[in-house]
Amino acid sequence: MMSVMELYQKLETQAVQVKALETAKADKTEIDAAVQLLQKLKVDYKQVTGEDYKAGCPPGADDEDTVDPWNVSTSNAKGVDYEKLIVRFGSSKIDKELVDRVEKVSGQKPHRFLRRGIFFSHRDVHQVLDAYEKDKCFYLYTGRGPSSEAMHVGHLIPFIFTKWLQDVFDIPLVIQMTDDEKYLWKDLTLEECHHYAAENAKDIIACGFDVNKTFIFSDLDYMGSSRDFYSNVVKIQKHVTFNQVKGIFGFSDSDSIGKISFPAIQAAPSFSNSFPQIFRGRTDVPCLIPCAIDQDPYFRMTRDVAPRIGYPKPALLHSTFFPALQGAQTKMSASDPNSSIFLTDTPKQIKDKVNCHAFSGGKDTVEEHRKHGGNPDIDVSFMYLTFFLEDDEQLEKIRQDYTSGALLTGELKKILIETLQPMIAEHQEKRKQVTDEMVKQFMTPRPLKVNF
Amino acid sequence: MMSVMELYQKLETQAVQVKALETAKADKTEIDAAVQLLQKLKVDYKQVTGEDYKAGCPPGADDEDTVDPWNVSTSNAKGVDYEKLIVRFGSSKIDKELVDRVEKVSGQKPHRFLRRGIFFSHRDVHQVLDAYEKDKCFYLYTGRGPSSEAMHVGHLIPFIFTKWLQDVFDIPLVIQMTDDEKYLWKDLTLEECHHYAAENAKDIIACGFDVNKTFIFSDLDYMGSSRDFYSNVVKIQKHVTFNQVKGIFGFSDSDSIGKISFPAIQAAPSFSNSFPQIFRGRTDVPCLIPCAIDQDPYFRMTRDVAPRIGYPKPALLHSTFFPALQGAQTKMSASDPNSSIFLTDTPKQIKDKVNCHAFSGGKDTVEEHRKHGGNPDIDVSFMYLTFFLEDDEQLEKIRQDYTSGALLTGELKKILIETLQPMIAEHQEKRKQVTDEMVKQFMTPRPLKVNF
Known about the structure:
- By secondary structure, chain A is an alpha/beta fold.
- Chain A has helices at 4-23, 28-49, 82-89, 96-106, 112-115, 125-133, 153-169, 179-185, 190-205, 219-223, 227-238, 242-249, 257-261, 263-267, 276-279, 296-305, 347-357, 366-372, 380-388, 392-404, 409-432, 436-442, and strands at 66-68, 71-73, 92-93, 119-123, 139-144, 173-177, 214-218, 287-292, 315-319, 323-324, 327-331.
- Helices cover 52% and strands 10% of the residues of chain A.
- In chain A, the strands form 3 sheets. A 7-stranded mixed sheet of chain A has the order 3-4-9-8-5-6-7, sandwiched between helices. A two-stranded antiparallel sheet of chain A has the order 1-2.
- Chain A binds chain B through residues 180, 183-184, 190, 220-221, 223-231, 234-235, 237-243, 245-246, 251-258, 260-261, 263-264, and chain B through 180, 183-184, 190, 220-221, 223-231, 234-235, 237-243, 245-246, 251-258, 260-261, 263-264.
């Protein structure tokens, strides 16, 4: 099925085509055929979106939600409308059937991120599970853009989940640190970005990845050490036009050629022969990418290119965004220390931030709260607990008590603080144990312990 | 001094600026100032080109000559108007003073390509010679796009001259084989382009380069083995916009992102720290690039970027084009075997091609030729002799005798055949001696014997 975005792009192309034929005074039957197709596409568009096609106005442009790799925002306090996003991006919802299947195939209770819809959307995950059931290996690919030393709890979401996937499926994992991307987009030197890559790698390693099954790489280092990786980058670059990245990423003529060609570098790790040291040159090992939904444009492009260069399309698991303390309207900002809990925060900082900055869904006075109850759907403390509190029953009880008014905002915040403090302290303890030598080990291209 | 092209680009920008101010209903004094600058630029443009500025019409667009990395053509039988090209590109003519200086600094008689204006244009060569005179090393950089196994004599021109420069200045040389470029532009596989790179390297090595001072590299291999090379590529890519490459190379929105970002890869070898194994990380070793003038757009871009990323601008030596046997209106085509003398041609093939296909400036009958004489300026056999006959006096005598009619076309062709046959046979002999082991040696990143 074509996604709304693909339909829109097809319409744009067809409109240009009709104009070109008219300008060239082409044969009338040819023009009529082109116009007819245009009309048909417009009808389809209206059917799917409920709105008329407007030239130059991509679907969702009028919506309140903006979601791309560089901007995420919404005016809705509950956060982005993820159901709409699934329609717009043309992905599939992670339904109970899929969660049950993951449980059956892995033999493990699904991770809370799956149970609670934090990973809510996917592409082709059933195919990866089909292969796995036939004793075929697949591999995981995720990544991080190292734009500063400071990482916050939200940055850990894909890694916590990926670590779980690695454990239950016992499969190899590659983690891309896009230091080249950060250099291209930010006012930073190459050396700074490369340094942040190594520092961030320590936080990632602290999540508990198995060094025997995990390869972490800086783009700057790996591009300059792998002929096969660069070959795949060039292959992808040959099969994507500026028009396409303009449509997908919104690039303009005044963007650098580095930005314009970068998507190929984020695409390349989706293909197993980018890592000959791991997959011994095999081109057909399926790839599963857990990532936040804002990264999907990169992989829509990747999946479009894959069959044209003879590779399998990567499968995806999309997560929702981790809300800022101030509310779910936007992603957190690494540059605003009060917008989130950082991995370096002290117990006191955690307590103060939650108490002072966490947006509350409670009522203004205790009396009112007891009477009318709070709204957990817009309460950031409650949202954070859905990410980090393991016990489903306890979470459900908190939700009910907060909704009824039995649980006060201060009490809810206290539960969150007591959940975050030991979690962050444990992370800090584990990170301390990550030596430069260990980072080097994880980041050295080498064979992994893989069972094909 | 600004080149005509730079002036034109400045005008285009200023015109957009004026329009933007008017649209935004900006302050009147601001608009007036912008309009005034626009008028001044228009006057400058008219003064330099003798023509009115027309929006969207780059200088030379109305000329008969097309010269860019992918197209060279002219309707003039004498070939491209190189004097006009110098004005259009904003380069400098190689005058007697520069040729004399090369002789003085190198202590050697200038190569026939310099004596005869085959290398006719340059950028900043005086600066490289200044540095050399102060005992500062510089290095040479040239390249080849390996699109097939077949190379013709014209392909050797930059290499013959570069070999001479390496000998007389005793300096290191890097040769880029742009196999990635050929993959991006042609209907070829990566493997084919990479294979052609190694095959073409054999013909290049047969020109006599010193393995101790020469590094030949395939982009596909070197990008994947040098962190420093990729770092420079990314630095360049960050500082060049799509608008710029559109203006310089004529790329369009439907070009692949690989093509759009490739110019950075041809630019990177202009900076010495792209080769840390040779220059030990130094960023300031000056670079001199001998190449055909159609490659100049790449290096105009490189020279524009260089100061913004803290590197010296490369100097250039530009050659004219080697004419096709059919005439100087176009470059030779590797796909038409009769358009040139190939490096694999037998003595008989050489004889037949010259006799049957070399465009003649002679008269139709012996009687007329004896009476009116021939025109060496449009005679391809004579042009070829200016490239390959070493003896200046003999060449001048041939010119005079052909012009007077004393020398017949058949006789002129015979001289060319007798010049080419032993030259090509010698090349074939030398190429036979180039083993795969030698190619590997030349193409291995390693320190060179360099005197700093």
